[in-house]
Amino acid sequence: MSKAIRISRTGGPEVLEYVDVEVGEPGPGQARVKQHACGINYIDVYFRTGLYPQQLPAGIGMEGAGVVEAVGEGVTHVKPGDRVAYAGHPPGAYAESRVMPAAPLVKLPDDIDFETGAAMMLQGMTVQYLLRRTHEVKAGDTILFHAAAGGVGLIACQWARALGVNLIGTVGSDDKAELAKAHGAAHVINYKTENFVERVKEITGGKGVPVVYDSIGKDTFTGSLDCLSPLGTMVSFGSASGPVPPFSLQELASRGSLFITRPTLFTYVAKREDLESTAKDLFDMVSSGKVKIEVNQRYALKDAAQAHIDLEARKTTGSSILLP
After folding, report:
1. pLDDT in tens, 166-178
2. CATH value at residue 196
């Protein structure tokens, strides 16, 4: 038997159950992975609360890193003994060992440890597609990135700096402001003490920014639109404060023919070649030292509920992991 976190109902952190599970052998297209670390992300909260529905009972968690123990028929891109990392469906990463689809697995370079691998796949590949594909930023651009001291945000600060991009980051405390600056943010706005729309206009000389990356949702959506320059792009990739309420398309027209998109990582890496290239870009940035993955919170697997409490209270910075 192996230990894992399961949910049989939706709700608060208390629905996360630490249980014994039978892992079994991988079937066609599957692999069994012994996990050394499991990533924690806000998307896990969405599944736990039911915002993202799934059939229950179910596992939870979208990313991890470990060693392949066995593969099923048809799996050729990984083999037993390979060090791997992944971010992908179905949920179930909060586990000591799991049988899962082999498709999301990529080989982890020897110079990247398991904790880093588990902490960076979802967040790091998210930054890659946001900055390089959803709206390709270029040197000299000034952009707005909300939650700049979070796991995705700290990676984005570093990646933007490496590309010569001026990132304006929003944060919720002075401590988080210092953290974002230390990781490469050109400007930092504490949204609890400053009006971020006014500050963005001040920083850009009234022009606004060509792109806003917003994982906050309800609380920042309208203000984010107001920060954009004409023909700017609103990238809404999360809803930590709640879903964006319905709005009129006229809101985009009246602000200067704006674009809006609601991307997900899993669409961007659905093709194997896209997954491989996205992961390689991330691995290269980390191996080069241009992006350092900050694993600032570590929890035992059995303490997943406390990890979620801290995450939702915005007590965490950088990345958080569970250790089986």
Report:
1. 999 999 999 999 9
2. 3.40.50.720
